[in-house]
Amino acid sequence: MTSGTSRSIRWAQAGLVTNAVLVLVKLVAGIVGNANALVADAVESSADIFSSMIVWTGLSIASRPADENHPFGHGKAEPIAAAIVSLMLLGAAVGIAVIAVREIVTPHKAPAPFTLFVAAGVIIIKEALYHRVARVGKETGSTALGADAWHHRADAISSGAAFVGIGIALLGGPGWEAADDWAALVAAFLITVNGARTLRPALSGLMDEAPDRSVWVVAHDAASRIAGVKRVEKLNVRSSGSGYYIDLHVQADPQLSLEAAHEIGAGVKYSIREAIPRAVNVLVHMEPYRMTGEQRVVDLVAPPPL
Question: Given phi > 0 = left and psi -120 to 50 = alpha, else beta, which region is 173?
Answer without folding.
Answer: left
